[in-house]
Amino acid sequence: MNPAPDLTLPEELLLLALDPVRGKPRCRNRFLEYGMAGAALAELELQGRIVEERGRVAVVMPLPPEDRRLARVLAMLPPPGKSRFSGAAGTRRWVRHEGRTVEGLYLDDLVEHGVLRREKRRALGIFPYVRHPAGAAGWSALVRTRFAQAEAASFPDRRSRLLASFALAVDLTDAFPGSGWRARSALRSRIRGEWAPDAVLRNVRQDKSSESSN
Question: Under CATH, which architecture does the 9-204 domain have?
Fold first, then answer.
């Protein structure tokens, strides 16, 4: 196993969500897309580059970060003083609109660096689909180990709590084998206090509500 650098929240969420053997998300991929967008926003906030104001993201440090993926995400946000998605639900709409693009950025980068493999297949010999099993770097196993350790310690810091909140928001419940329903319920209540996981959760619930009404 190659030692992993300090991973960002989107990287950790993606590696936590993908089954390392089958290469498929262990939750709905659309939900994971929302989670990836939200996790990228949370990482930018942790770096002091953006803040959330009344449901909208505001860029407070427009200089691009060294991480090229986060630099791309920052460039996708409206510049200071402007808002692409206005109103109280602006952040939630950004997450819904940009989730697939953000997920694609990280998938491409992790494949390029050998952390994931890209396997193109066809269902029934006709319908193309893509899987991303773990690569030789071994980062997927490392992320799962770190997450289990954080879970055992009741997610002691904000970064680990954010990752756990995103995992719950996208319905990645099997990532919590050591937590009972009371612990997961307490963690869900914390999502409301974190704007980025909350935006993800609201999009997930919107999809579920639309499905139930059809």
Answer: Orthogonal Bundle (1.10)
